[in-house]
Specification:
Length: 185
């Protein structure tokens, strides 16, 4: 689904925040800022099948972890993906660029991935199906030497997890910690 009104000037974009996004897009030279492709269940599934991960184009305010309203359709597609495949477990990973202090960026990425996890749990996805991690600037997807690369590094991705694998380490949300079975003497 193409969302031409998300960043396109003169397409329902009248707020100051939206105007800043349009201006930033023009400064950075993003050629298709008027045609942002929201993920579909099919495109998410295809990326997960192909690479095991998919980047979500979820926007956050600078230095904040508050989801923008345009995240709702993206979250809805992830919910549908997980509803269609009840065995699917995902890691929600948050990332930042390398601008600022490392520890702060790690905490910010953790807050952002937690916001996405909270939105999925609020949409009735079982917390046991979600794990998460905030990696700050430690796992860049692009070059941090350019503004365009840094912009790509600020985001959230979903990663397919395999139950029982060493990589699947759930971080429970909104549920009690797991306890081992009692030992009988």
């Amino acid at each position: 689904m193409i969302s031409s009104s998300r960043y396109a000037p003169n397409a329902g974009c009248s707020s100051a925040k939206c105007a800043r996004i349009v201006a930033l897009s023009a400064i950075l030279g993003w050629q298709s800022y008027g045609e942002v492709e929201d993920p579909t269940v099919e495109s998410l599934k295809s990326q997960l099948d192909k690479t095991g991960r998919a980047v979500l184009s979820i926007n956050f305010d600078f230095n904040k972890a508050t989801l923008w309203p345009d995240a709702k359709p993206i979250i809805a597609q992830v919910v549908k993906l997980m509803t269609d495949d009840p065995r699917l477990t995902l890691a929600i990973n948050g990332h930042t660029d390398n601008v600022g202090q490392h520890d702060y960026n790690v905490k910010l990425s953790q807050s952002r991935e937690a916001a996405v996890v909270d939105a999925l749990v609020a949409a009735n996805i079982a917390p046991a199906r979600l794990s998460s991690g905030g990696f700050g600037p430690d796992q860049p997807v692009d070059d941090n030497g350019t503004e365009k690369g840094r912009a790509k590094n600020r985001g959230v991705e979903i990663v397919r997890q395999q139950r029982g694998s060493a990589r699947w380490m759930p971080r429970p949300y909104a549920c009690a910690p797991r306890r081992s079975a009692p030992r009988h003497a």
